[in-house]
């Protein structure tokens, strides 16, 4: 069994006494080097989970354990070293006046020596393919480029957990695929747990495991393929079905046998031409 | 559109003045403001003018550009000159019109004050022309460091300055977007009486403020998530380094100050 890196134990959270519960008695675990996706419609509590993981919010009930440490007011600064987060809005998380200043910001906060900073800036910017923009100012970058810088700034502090909190929601399709490719590549190289929080089912494809949130509770927890199979239920809790999944559903209705749930175009194509050869 | 946006009046360059440590530039200018008042003879003024003009030429910024930047203060300089011309009544009477006498002392005094004024403005604008706002911020943070002892929030002030500098272009782009959005809804920013045009700014400012507050909130959260906990124990990427050229400039400036003392009263 892999080492547990994040564990939620009966966590409940609400923003205030008179507010409704945003999370209701949630328990789950995330393991080392695991790629996990948390999906749910707006207001399902998925972003709250992210903020609870690095102590931006604290639960009213239950306990959150990150890497063996319970998240409390005293431990948040240590925990934030292990948990890196990329937020939704590319502009509102860019602190530095240039790309390299922004990457340096997290390291400056942790008192890392200047030589080491320069080395890490080089490494992380080339990991996300932004090396030639070192001295560029943020207003000259596209949204996708800013998000890649945000990923680089998080990587520079060598986190064990990388959380993407709707990091692609404000990007165009190209920026979106760019970020997802960058992140997947980085996860391979650096062995970190990747938590993708999204409302777009298309983005859960690369995950090993998907947690579906609904109304503040965990609705389901399974591999992407099994999640994709429950189309009617997903629609009912307000999630859009990706094109490929909808197409294979229609094909099935039309009497074409599709055995394996397809995650992307290639898989569906594979499924189609092989299924006919069997017939 | 906003790609060519330059904050302040910084002109990029590689000249000696550009490459000087911003702290050197600020210190020299600070003392220059004082020594300008030492001058009281033709030779001492010439020393000051020579220093200012040499600095100006070493920046390699087109002179026309520098003078254009001084445009708004020309009026003030001429006004001071005329004021001194009228008010001073020393020396011999040069012209006498309708009871108003212009004295030779007035002419001299007017010239002297105008030259001082011009030199001060020229030298200080050379600072902003050759130094990026962020360099100035770093220099101020470094130079105010001793104030930390009396709990003056130097680091916070510098961070505030650098974040505002970073967000100026972003907010300008946003203003542009909002004004277009409002114009498409029928708000008229350009024509009509002044009162109407001022009123038209309201639907521009309100969304701008709302979004600025939202940005501030999100930025604060992002900064916290990245481990920001104040200036304590922080290291810095941007480094200020005093080099050989800074030393040379300091020595040169001391020689000029000494020359000024010597040529005084001549």
Report on the structure:
The complex is a heterodimer of chains A (279) and B (266). By secondary structure, chain A is of the alpha/beta class. Chain A folds into 2 domains: 4-237, Rossmann fold, CATH 3.40.50.300; 242-279, no CATH class. Chain A is 39% helix and 21% strand. In chain A, strands 6-7-8-3-9-10 form a 6-stranded mixed beta sheet, sandwiched between helices. Chain A has a 4-stranded antiparallel beta sheet with strand order 2-1-4-5, covered by helices on one side. In chain A, a hairpin with a 2-residue loop joins strand 4 (61-66) and strand 5 (69-70). In chain A, helix 3 packs across helix 4 (114-127), helix 3 (99-109) packs parallel to helix 5 (143-155) and helix 5 (143-155) packs parallel to helix 6. Chain A is globular. Helices cover 68% and strands 3% of the residues of chain B. Chain B contains 10 helices and 2 strands, in the order H-H-H-H-H-E-E-H-H-H-H-H. Chain B has 2 domains: 2-131 and 241-263, no CATH class; 155-225, no CATH class. In chain B, helix 8 (154-184) packs across helix 9. Chain B is flat, with a radius of gyration of 25 Å. In chain B, strands 1-2 form a two-stranded antiparallel sheet. The termini of chain B are far apart. In chain B, a hairpin with a 2-residue loop joins strand 1 and strand 2 (100-103). Chain B is mainly alpha-helical. Chain B has helices at 16-19, 22-35, 42-58, 63-69, 71-87, 104-130, 133-143, 154-184, 194-225, 244-263, and strands at 93-97, 100-103. Classes of the chains: A alpha/beta (279), B mainly alpha (266). Chains A and B meet through helix 2, helix 3 and helix 4 of A and helix 8 and helix 9 of B. Chain A: One of its GO terms (cellular component) is ATP-binding cassette (ABC) transporter complex. Chain A: It comes from Lentibacillus kapialis. Chain A: This is Energy-coupling factor transporter ATP-binding protein EcfA1.
